[in-house]
Design goal:
Number of helices: 12
Strand order of the largest sheet: 2-3-6-1-7
């Protein structure tokens, strides 16, 4: 709605994950390094956690886009509200594999045969489980069993578990001891600092052709950080509303008072449904 008015090529703060907007904050850079290390190792589990909206999915998409498909066949499961049998089916579908039977034994055998065929052709299988905190203990155990597949001394499947902070608690339970021993690296995505929040906002604006119209005052960036707690998705929500308000009022600048007003409006509109409240 406001993109053409400000001369933007596209929406700068869309909520759907887009790796082209990836912002290389120190935390995201560290997490991406862990993921790349995991790909290099080619075995075990990598665990990445973060709050809702921290940028986990964008991070993973950025990694997957950079992989060589001639060497690594990657698949992603995003619906994790599944029992163990349906999880196996979802994994097979993610790899584009049609399973010949519905029994767990048949599914496991088919998956192992597929992963073995990949290895024989010089490729490796990488499985990304998004929202992994929704998995039950039985489903996580299925993933561990799949990690047992080997061809000679080489693992046939590597898995990344991506989820919210409660995933870390799950993995610390006594029942997860065997899987914990397979985790070769783990990291947590925290919120952006005030300085990183400013750089994140400017990065996304510049990506769509921003030419300082509208102009953001210094106190606007500070208030955006307060309003969003440095969580990227919340930053996107706040900034989208700021740009819309600037467009509707024909404003050429955005300051801290504008942010506080928009933030207060959002809190009033969505009270009780999302963690927004007027800035102090």
């Amino acid at each position: 709605m406001f993109e053409s008015h400000f001369g933007f090529r596209s929406a700068p703060f869309q909520l759907s994950p887009d790796p082209s907007f990836y912002y290389d904050s120190p935390g995201h850079r560290n997490a991406l390094s862990y993921l790349k290390f995991g790909v290099y190792q080619g075995e075990g589990f990598i665990v990445v956690t973060g709050e809702i909206g921290a940028g986990k999915t964008t991070l993973v998409k950025s990694l997957l886009e950079g992989l060589d498909s001639d060497q690594i066949v990657a698949a992603q499961v995003v619906n994790t509200q599944l029992d163990s049998e349906n999880l196996l089916q979802a994994i097979a579908m993610a790899f584009g594999l049609r399973l010949p039977g519905n029994s767990k034994a048949q599914m496991i055998t088919s998956l192992e045969a597929y992963f073995t065929a990949l290895a024989a052709s010089g490729r490796r299988a990488l499985l990304v489980i998004d929202e992994a905190q929704n998995l039950g203990l039985r489903e996580i155990e299925e993933l561990r069993m799949l990690s047992n597949f080997q061809l000679g001394s080489h693992a046939l499947l590597q898995s990344f578990l991506v989820g919210q902070p409660e995933l870390r608690g799950m993995l610390q339970s006594k029942a997860m001891e065997q899987l914990r021993q397979r985790v070769i690296a783990s990291c947590h995505l925290g919120p952006l600092s005030a300085e990183q929040t400013r750089k994140y906002v400017e990065h996304r604006l510049q990506h769509v052709g921003w030419t300082d119209f509208p102009h953001f005052e210094d106190d606007a960036f500070a208030q955006i950080h307060v309003a969003s707690d440095g969580v990227p998705r919340r930053i996107n929500l706040v900034c989208t509303r700021l740009l819309l308000a600037a467009f509707l009022s024909s404003s050429t600048r955005i300051d801290g008072a504008d942010v506080a007003r928009v933030f207060s409006e959002m809190g009033s509109e969505l009270a009780g449904s999302v963690p927004f409240a007027p800035a102090a």
